[in-house]
Amino acid sequence: MINAGKFEEIYRQHANAVFRVSLRAVGRREIAEEITSEVFLALHQNSERIDPDQLPAWLFTVAKRRAADHWRRWYLEDRWALTPQPEQPWQEPELPLTTLLEKCSSLKPIHRACITLRFVHGMSREEIASQTGLNEVQVKGHLQYALKLLRESIGSDRIPLPSRGEVSADV
């Protein structure tokens, strides 16, 4: 187990090197800073299982894996953005979004909040994340899951739900 003093010493000794590896891997300073903080958070959480002799290699391995995760997410989102979405004419829903949210009992409060902020208030994922204290990936997941639950609860064939920025006038 690494105590607080030992942890600070390890951080001072290896933080710059971990940051440089991360920066080289992702090319963006803010992402490299996030990765560096995630690496040391992982060190703190797994300190009982890490052999101190293997520490520098462990830190660099975690940094490289986090950078790879970043690129996987980036490529996935980029590929999704470039995939042509079938054009469907917008049809006004039979019920306002607030009524649909009330009728779907399987939605958790965080799902309702994300859906409301996105489709009623027209906020972006970044704005929702700052408003709710979640990160953008969590917001995206909550929105996707909430829309899936809403579609399942009302039958997606009968009532179209708002998509990307489209909001019912009666909401």
Characterization of the model:
- With 171 residues, the protein is an all-alpha fold.
- It has two domains: 4-82, RNA polymerase sigma factor, region 2, helix turn helix motif (Rna Polymerase Sigma Factor, Chain: A, Orthogonal Bundle), CATH 1.10.1740.10; 97-154, Arc Repressor Mutant, subunit A (Orthogonal Bundle).
- The chain contains seven helices and no strands.
Radius of gyration: 21 Å
Q: What would the CATH topology of the largest domain be?
A: Rna Polymerase Sigma Factor, Chain: A
Instruction: State the CATH architecture of the largest domain.
Output: Orthogonal Bundle
Q: Any low-confidence stretches, pLDDT <50, length ≥5?
A: 156-161, 166-171
Structural class: mainly alpha
How far is the N terminus from the C terminus?
A: 54 Å
Number of separate helices = 7
Name the CATH superfamily assignment of the largest domain. Answer: RNA polymerase sigma factor, region 2, helix turn helix motif
What's the total count of β strands?
0
Helix content: 55-70%
- The helix/strand order is HHHHHHH
Relative strand content: under 5%
- Main β-sheet: number of strands, strand sense, barrel status? none
CATH class of the largest domain: Mainly Alpha
Structure in a nutshell:
The chain is an all-alpha fold. The protein has helices at residues 4-26, 29-45, 55-82, 97-103, 109-120, 125-132, 136-154.
